[in-house]
Amino acid sequence: MPITNRESDARLAVAAAQAGAAVVRDMYGEPSARFGKGAGDFATAADLAAENAVLDVLRGARPDDAVTGEESGHTGSADAERRWLVDPLCGTLNYAVRSMLVAVNVALRTGATTTVAAAADPFNDEVFWTDGDHARVRRGGADEVLVPSAGSRLVDVNLDPPFPNAPDFRAARLLADPVFGEHFRPRVVSTTLAVAWVAAGRRAAYVTDGRPYDSVHFAAGIALCEAAGCVVSALHGQPLGTGADGLIVAADRRTHTTLLELVRSQVPAER
Questions:
Q1: Least buried of 35, 83, 109, 128, by fewest C-beta within 10 Å?
Q2: Does the global pTM surpass 0.70?
Q3: At a CB cut-off of 8 Å and minimum separation 6, what does 247 contact?
Q4: What is the mean pLDDT of residues 235-257?
């Protein structure tokens, strides 16, 4: 059977993520200057080199597509129908202190929809990917279907700023809530690789404040979770992209409902 455009795009996303992951892996442990980006954020030489590797693959195959890169910014038409979202090294601080918890994220937005995506783990030689209909992980050249599960009870909570829902909601307060402790075990890995882990059944859920919709950091992970059948919403249960901030991704409805109730419990009763 002929390869469809979406299948071709998915293969390209995987190839681009793998190219970035190879650079991240090869440069690991090398002394690297930090290039400040403001508000305590920074990039390393590996961020820049990995993004160049990803862009080389994308532009070689799709020269007319627009791109938004974490480091290089926007290229192509502002109203392009097709735009690639690239986060070449999610977990830069982890990487800079020689922690291997990082991801290379590549996603394609076609109109208002993320149609294909890939999130590569450079150090486990895994690529989580979706063609928009199915979610899989490629390991050793073979693909396996991603199956979400809440069985681990592990929930990743992103504690990095910004906090647009403060003071009504603080992610850190979830960790001290006895109801959270009754149902879940917290994890903080500071990379959106953890979002892909929800799709893979390695995490029960992921919670963050901020503005993840259309973000180079989150687009790939969200697409993976939606294709895998996870429950995905903004922080207060609204659909993503409807003006609400934050993100709850859960392996099942029960886990999502419990976390939603915990988030809502932080809002003052008079609201």
A1: 35
A2: yes
A3: 206, 207, 208, 210, 212, 218, 222, 232, 233, 234, 235, 240
A4: 93
Measured CA to CA, the distance from residue 21 to residue 18 in angstroms comes to 5
At 7 the three-state DSSP class reads helix
Phi/psi of residue 216, nearest 5 degrees? -60, -25
Q: Kindly state the tokens that stand for 97.
A: 């202190």
Strand, coil or helix: 124: coil
Q: Are 20 and 104 in contact (CB under 8 A)?
A: yes
Write out pLDDT tens, residues 213-226: 889 999 999 999 99
For the stretch 162-171, pLDDT in tens is 899 999 999 9
Residue type, 70: E
Q: What is the model's pLDDT at position 237?
A: 94
Q: How far apart are the first and last CA of the chain?
A: 56
Q: What does the pLDDT look like over 80-104, one tens digit per residue?
A: 999 999 999 999 999 999 999 999 9
**CB-CB contact of 21 with 122 (8 Å):** yes
Contact residues for 134 (Cβ-Cβ < 8 A; gap 6+): 145, 227
pLDDT(13) > 60: yes
Q: At what angle do helices 45-61 and 5-27 cross, to 10 degrees?
A: 160
- Half-sphere exposure at residue 97, Cβ-oriented, CA atoms within 13 angstroms: 6
Tell me if 251 sits within 8 A of 198, measured CB to CB: yes
Give CA 91 to chain center in angstroms.
Answer: 11
Provide φ and ψ at 128, rounded to 5°.
-85, 130
Mean pLDDT of the chain: 93
* H or E element at residue 140: none
Phi, psi of 86, rounded to the nearest 5 degrees: -125, 120
Amino acid at position 225, single letter? C
